[in-house]
Structure formats: structure tokens, C-alpha cells
Design a protein that fits this description.
Helices cover 5% and strands 47% of the residues. The protein starts with a helix and ends with a strand. The protein is elongated, with a radius of gyration of 17 Å. It is built from 1 helix and 13 strands. Strand 1 and strand 2 form a beta hairpin. It has a single domain, classed as Immunoglobulin-like. With 167 residues, it is mostly beta strands. The protein has a 6-stranded antiparallel sheet with strand order 4-2-1-13-7-11, with no helix packed on it. Strands 5, 8, 9, 10 and 12 form a 5-stranded antiparallel sheet that branches. A two-stranded antiparallel sheet has the order 3-6.
């Protein structure tokens, strides 16, 4: 099978979602949430989050001093389903601007990033990963602070796109 045929099959299912990370980092208690939406670009047998938003909360209080890459993690409760997947493979990819420190994390603001975890392991942004369309992985979002940075309290936001490719 040539690369053109392979590419054509890879385009059978392309879903994009806009992820909005917004909240406020302060020394005082605050809430941090983000929303994920999905938009089906082509008709396919896979569906990402039924076109609905996903809200992720890191709790009622985000304390700058306690952001360490372990505290402030929450599940990205998305819904992904493929009907009649058969032998075909599905990949997901979360695209976004990389952080200004570390590797593979999503940029939020200077010195602050979101690390995506896939079944407990770091999942770099802008990198595709295979999934079982009938049993998609648990994805987590974790706030990470650059230890050398001094974060300024205030609101922040980041964007990312999640794509699913059915081959």
C-alpha cells in the first residue's frame, strides 16, 4: 500500500477540539477550570465528546506555592467512541504551544504549564498516540510551575486542539 493510500485512510476520522484553559493563579484561593469542545470535520464512525464541552476543575484553591507537577491534577473527562472499529487504528494528538520550560507541556503563561498524563505517563503535546477506540485512555491535566519562575497572581488561559485520526 503506497503512502497516498495510507494517508487517505488516515483522514477518515479527524476531530478537532478547542481547549480553553482559564482561571486565576494567586496566593489566595481560586478555582481553575478549562473547557474542551469538539467539532467534527468529516463524517466518520468515531465521535469525540459528542460535541460538548469538558470542564476540568483543579479544586477551589490554587496556591502558587503548591504547584509542583503533582498537586493540582484533574481528569480530562472526555468521551470517545468508535463504532465498528474492527482492525483499524485510532490515534489522538493534543496540539498546542509548548511551554517555555521543560519538554512536551502546554504553555499557559511564562513559568506555568499543563502536563498531560496518559494512563499515568507524561504525554507530550504535539505528539500522536495510539488508543483503543473501544476503551480510550484516562487523560489527566496537571499544573506545573517552573521552579525558577515567580508567578504573578491573576487570570490565565491556554488553548490546544485535540485530534482523533481513524485509519
Amino acid at each position: 500500500m503506497d503512502s497516498t493510500t495510507t494517508f487517505a485512510k488516515a483522514v477518515l476520522c479527524t476531530l478537532t477540539g478547542l481547549t480553553l484553559f482559564s482561571g486565576r493563579v494567586t496566593a489566595a484561593p481560586e478555582v481553575f477550570t478549562f473547557t474542551m469542545t469538539a467539532n467534527v470535520l468529516q463524517s466518520a464512525s468515531c465521535q469525540l465528546n459528542e460535541g460538548k464541552n469538558v470542564e476540568v476543575s483543579f479544586g477551589d484553591r490554587v496556591d502558587i506555592a503548591k504547584i509542583n507537577g503533582t498537586n493540582y491534577q484533574s481528569e480530562i473527562a472526555y468521551n470517545f467512541s468508535c463504532k465498528q472499529q474492527g482492525k483499524n487504528t485510532v490515534t489522538l494528538q493534543i496540539d498546542g504551544t509548548g511551554a517555555d520550560f521543560g519538554q512536551g507541556m502546554l504553555y499557559v503563561q511564562p513559568g506555568l504549564a499543563i502536563k498531560i498524563m496518559n494512563e499515568g505517563k507524561a504525554q507530550p503535546v504535539n505528539t500522536s498516540f495510539a488508543i483503543d477506540g473501544t476503551d480510550p485512555p484516562v487523560l489527566m491535566a496537571v499544573l506545573v510551575k517552573n521552579p525558577a519562575a515567580s508567578l504573578t497572581p491573576g487570570y490565565f488561559e491556554a488553548t490546544a486542539t485535540i485530534k482523533a485520526v481513524y485509519q
